[in-house]
Amino acid sequence: MAKNKQKSYYDQLKAEILAFLSVNLEKPYTLQDLFTHYDVKNKQEKALYGMLIEDLLQEGKVHQIDKGKYTVDVNANAIIGRLDHVNPRFGFIRYDDTKPDIWVSSDDLKGAIDGDLVKATTYGEFYRKGDNPEGCIIEIIERGRKEIVGKIQNFGNYALVKPDHKNLYDDIFIPKDKINGATKDDLVIAKIIEYPTNIQQGIGEVIEILGKSGDNNAEMHAILAEFGLPIRFDKTIEDEAAAISEVIAEEEIKKRRDFRNILTFTIDPHDAKDFDDALSFKILDNKNYEIGVHIADVTHYVKEGTKLEEEALNRATSVYLVDRTIPMLPEKLSNNLCSLRPNEDKLTFSAVFEMTHDGRVVNEWFGRTIIHSDKRFSYEEAQDVLENLENDVLNPNPEPNEIVDKYQFPLHTLNHLAKILKKERFRNGAINFETNEVKFKLDETGKPLGVVLKIRKDAHKLIEEFMLLANKKVAEFVFKLKHDTNTDGNTMVYRVHEPPNPEKLQNFANFAARFGYAIKTDSDKTLSNSMNKMMAEVEGTPVQNVLEQLAVRTMSKARYTTEPLGHFGLAFEHYSHFTSPIRRYPDMMAHRLLQHYLTASQKTKGTISQDDFEKKSKHSSDREKLAAEAERASIKYKQVEFMSLQERRTIYSGVVTGVTDFGIFVEITSTSCEGMVRLADLKDDFYEWDKANYRIVGKRTGRVINFGDTVKVTVKGTDLERRSMDLELFSVGDKAILSNASKKGGNESKRGGQAKNSSKRRGTPTDKNKGKRRRK
């Protein structure tokens, strides 16, 4: 036992020396320097330090530069990743989904800011923050952002821009001659001229004024700019789109399969402006059904090598904020030429299936077509037909049963087939990831009047199942073609969703077990069955949204790649995105590749560059992530704005959705708006964070507040700039909790999880006078 303790002390001291040399890279150090730093005076201790250095030399972790001078090769164990500066006190370097992120104190960022690509090293196994190794940044490889969006405040000879982004904590200094007309409370875009360092603010220049803080248009534009997303199209792009002819030439029609005389319709949201998919329905002589999934033929109009193509690739996706859509393509294309509007001939790319009444696909065909949509349904109108309601909503002046008579059998049959397809997916192991989606009622100025949850009914699911079928069959066709022709060149852009990380999955299973739900992880099939069972059982319970969202976060993120890795969530071996080329660039790539294989000769089937499509797939995945973050930011902004307009001291029911060392997150049930109750505001007890059990515990009373507990709260304050909301806790379950919004947190710094100054602990020379100077 004594030997083990001695070895542990020896190893820890060795790790301490390695950490000291890793963080102090400006010069090599001698043994005497170490003696001085660690206050080593007697011969026995000095000999021990000599042995430690010898061990580190033999292990290759320390190098001798000059005689008696030692340093570390930081590149030997360095990793490259992105900085996620989650807190003013620390951040994480995220570099590998299968490994824990590296915890970095804000003192050790070396001037890096959130989003930067950096090189970092760790201090060794004895330095950890929870489950994460601790380290420091040694090099900034690439800056993640060149511009900052925020609100400007003017002073005599300078101005400051306070960043909107929640992970940027320091103001940007704007010299007087770089303010460029911005005035107090303007939302601006500032170009970074000099990046911040550990001792000095960043310097910027105002390059665009978006409008006044609080103005809806300015705020939405600020969110787009914050995530590096475009606000408008350049004139050259608009002009190129405007020049495209709207006339469909007879020669083009002759090249295509003609569906204009077959019953065809679209089903979309009532406020949709672009319709990129349509369904056709026909009963064949053998009593089977011919069902066409017709997709706007965007690549007929957007040619490779054009500015339009370049812009579509750069954007890669349309962006959906709470009150607007920022399209991937100009309106001439997205809302006109490529929109499958009723009573107009439209060029399409189609997947046509012959199906039996029991849902089997017995024949399939892919190719370019022309259609003529007979009817534009909203989801509500289609649902009315499915429910066989004669409703004036269908048509202001209907003939008796006009819509119902014409579309009832096709819609009911498609719904019947869709339910069979869905049942088959779940039988094969698909997981039901239906989470609540927030929608706002807005007035003409964008002010939120109400928050509602979107409800998915059969009409939504009908369309979804046939889009899934088309995407799946296109991917299978190309993959099978590759093997049937024994070629290596049948590149395809797949939408893949890999199985979850086992550690994350086990953590979620342990968490769900606390609520009485068993998540079995023995195999993909048992996992999907148990997840679906849990999803069904939590429906309508207070913890439904919490568990559903956590389940989604546990899963791997879907992405685009040319590797056929399958789609875990859908239980498809091969899956692509083919059905939304108006709003997704990967669908345009899938269209081009499919057409190439349909028409190319055997000699040219292998002429596609997989590397090129892989790069475009990676870019599309990255842009999709940014668009999703912008959408969430706009929703969060409107949620906070909505709550700021409500009557003060209203008591709301909610659910605890997160527990941290400084507070608990609560989602208000009626509005799905999330805010924080700070531990410093709870005066009935001193609460400590029990991370392992997802709860906080009162030190004196033993009172426990768990993740998933039902609570009642009031709104203490809202901060639109940070898109955050502070709450006061009124009660947990039926037990009242005392809180005091006016009480200032004298205990806050004592709470668990507060970061220590790791650099100071290791004696970093720059650990003093860390305050950043303000340039004037």
Q: What do these coordinates show?
A:
The structure is a single chain. The chain is an alpha+beta fold. Strand 12 and strand 13 (202-212) form a beta hairpin. Helix 13 (502-513) runs antiparallel to helix 15 (544-554). It has a 7-stranded mixed sheet. Helices cover 31% and strands 26% of the residues. The protein folds into 6 domains: 2-72, Winged helix-like DNA-binding domain superfamily/Winged helix DNA-binding domain (Arc Repressor Mutant, subunit A, Orthogonal Bundle), CATH 1.10.10; 79-144, OB fold (Dihydrolipoamide Acetyltransferase, E2P); 147-226, OB fold (Dihydrolipoamide Acetyltransferase, E2P); 256-497 and 562-628, no CATH class; 502-555, no CATH class; 646-750, Nucleic acid-binding proteins (OB fold (Dihydrolipoamide Acetyltransferase, E2P), Beta Barrel), CATH 2.40.50.140. The chain contains 18 helices and 35 strands.
Please provide a brief summary of the model.
With 776 residues, this protein is of the alpha+beta class. The chain folds into 6 domains: 2-72, Winged helix-like DNA-binding domain superfamily/Winged helix DNA-binding domain (Arc Repressor Mutant, subunit A); 79-144, Beta Barrel (OB fold (Dihydrolipoamide Acetyltransferase, E2P)); 147-226, OB fold (Dihydrolipoamide Acetyltransferase, E2P) (Beta Barrel), CATH 2.40.50; 256-497 and 562-628, no CATH class; 502-555, no CATH class; 646-750, OB fold (Dihydrolipoamide Acetyltransferase, E2P) (Beta Barrel). Helix 4 packs antiparallel against helix 17 and helix 13 runs antiparallel to helix 15 (544-554).
